[in-house]
């Protein structure tokens, strides 16, 4: 972290709409608050499995609330999440492992593109309802985020490498070690201690906690 700045790690997965909301809010505040924001692409499925958590939509009453909640938050934060009941099945039926490995490969090679690439994955999945598990869609997303076709090809080749698989697994395990059970998981390193804030609706609390 830069001198006197609080390191804030954002563990996220592009399959999570609340992660998108939290990501955009933290992106906006990263230059206003005295924080060093670090993007940590992780695998939500791994966190769910390790902690025995289940997708919120599995509980009908919670699913009903979530539809309204995400619509309200999207409007309030001006993030174009489009959600309907069909999305619950869509999320369960889409493999996001390739996408998160692609983002992880980028993190290992050109991390400065993490913000635009991650955002573009959310836009495709949550605004345009495209299948982000398809290679041609991943390449289109990379192009839109400003990556050269050479870099995109290289990242695609890296997806199946042990280095990338291990890195994604390690990042996911790190989130669990901090106490994460879902996403977004935001960890502020304050006065020598890590502090976990779960969800996109705890960011004012995070700000207050670090003296902002």
From TrEMBL:
GO terms for biological process: glutathione metabolic process. Its EC number is 2.5.1.18. It holds the Pfam family DSBA. InterPro entries: DSBA-like_thioredoxin_dom (IPR001853), GST_Kappa/NadH (IPR051924), GSTK (IPR044088), HCCAis_GSTk (IPR014440), Thioredoxin-like_sf (IPR036249). Signal peptide: none annotated. Belongs to the GST superfamily. Kappa family. This is Glutathione S-transferase kappa 1.
């Amino acid at each position: 972290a830069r001198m006197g700045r609080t390191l804030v790690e954002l563990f996220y997965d592009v399959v999570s709409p609340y992660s998108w909301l939290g990501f955009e809010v933290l992106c906006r505040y990263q230059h206003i608050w005295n924080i060093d924001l670090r993007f940590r692409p992780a695998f939500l499925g791994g966190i769910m499995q390790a902690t025995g958590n289940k997708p919120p939509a599995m509980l009908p009453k919670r699913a009903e609330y979530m539809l309204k909640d995400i619509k309200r938050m999207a409007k309030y934060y001006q993030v174009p999440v489009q959600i309907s009941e069909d999305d619950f099945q869509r999320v369960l039926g889409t493999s996001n492992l390739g996408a998160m490995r692609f983002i992880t490969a980028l993190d290992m090679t050109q991390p400065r593109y993490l913000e635009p690439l991650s955002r573009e994955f959310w836009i495709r999945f949550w605004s345009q309802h495209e299948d982000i598990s398809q290679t041609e869609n991943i390449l289109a997303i990379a192009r839109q985020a400003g990556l050269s076709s050479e870099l995109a090809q290289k990242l695609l080749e890296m997806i199946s490498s042990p280095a990338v698989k291990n890195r994604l697994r390690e990042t996911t395990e790190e989130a669990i070690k901090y106490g994460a059970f879902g996403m977004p998981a935001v960890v502020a390193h304050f006065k020598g201690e890590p502090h976990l804030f779960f969800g996109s609706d705890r960011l004012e609390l995070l700000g207050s906690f670090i003296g902002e």
